[in-house]
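User: We ran a pulldown and think these components assemble together. Before we commit to crystallization trials, I'd like a predicted model of the whole complex to look at. Sequences follow.
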Amino acid sequence: MFAKEMLKQSLPLLIFCGLGGIVAGRTLGEMTDLLKNIPGLIVIIPAIIALRGNISTTFGSRLGSAYHLGVIDAENMWNVELKQNIIGSLILSFLVSITIGILAYSITIIFFDLNPNPIKIILIVILAGMLSGLILTLLTIIIIFAVFKRGYDPDNITGPALATFGDIITMFCIFGSAIFIEVLL
Amino acid sequence: MIYSWKRIVRYGLPLLTLCVLIEIFAGTILQGGQNILLKIPIFLISIPVINSVGGNIGSILGARLASGLHVGYITLDIKDKKMHENFITSIFLGLITYGILAIIIYYVALFSDISMDIGLIEFILIILSVGILLIFIVSFASILTAFLSFKRGLDPDDFVAPVVTTVGDTMGIILLFFIIGVVIV
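Assistant: Here's a predicted model for the assembly, 370 residues in total across the polymer chains.
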């Protein structure tokens, strides 16, 4: 009875998130040549995806709480609270992206005896981190706005939605940034 | 104004940096096994799926435990029956989800002309073995985090998701290489 209810409610969402994972994985599968050519690229992938997931879900859940506290709603979206949240999320993305780049560069040298171009790997992380940060911040605001309009509870919707689209968008951004930097440098 | 970007950055940075450090470790393992992944790219596609399902199931379990502890129908006891039921349902839920997604991944890879030296049954068995072990570990992490944070008077909702996704990502990758090593090499 209890297990049946949990299955009925969770399974469709799990499968849906899993399908999102397949799209992200398929993108990763397309990147085999890039992974061969840019040593250290694969090291940064789990970290960027985790960074993105972490920042956007906390951003989403803070906006959810702000809604419940009554400081933000559909008529009064673009206010100082939202702006502070956006600035905070983007600064976090930038700081942690640089950290990831430096760590990945050092690890590739120390453990794998490969010599990646430090500028390349750090630029890829910053570009992918900031780009996916901007897109996902915008997406979160759009989702939250749509949820407010309908009067739903944002806490029930933003988490799974961001988890699914976040992985795909982040993987696209890593792919795009790696190609861009590889062509540029 | 209740939010300030400075506070968002100051509170977010420590946990985020810790998560990213562990994820870089996961990335380092990926770099170490990169040759296997490039040789059999179907496993490259599977990585985001394995990680997202593991993280999601752990988070669902954690959220259910947190609500149960808050409301009081789950007690802080290793022998708690409701907790056991939730744990067993998670394993069951994981088996079904990983089974369905393994079949989808296999056919996605087959139709996108990705080179495969692996049969459907063998692939499903590998994903299921990784999946069930991962869910065991993630569920333990989830129960432990929920119980420990609640015992200290903290809100489990703040801790379970980041801990579980980080543990899930790292262990998912380690288990995948372990099982591939046992079955194929």
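The longest helix of chain A spans residues 80-112. That may be worth checking against your pulldown data before setting up trials.

User: Thanks, that helps.
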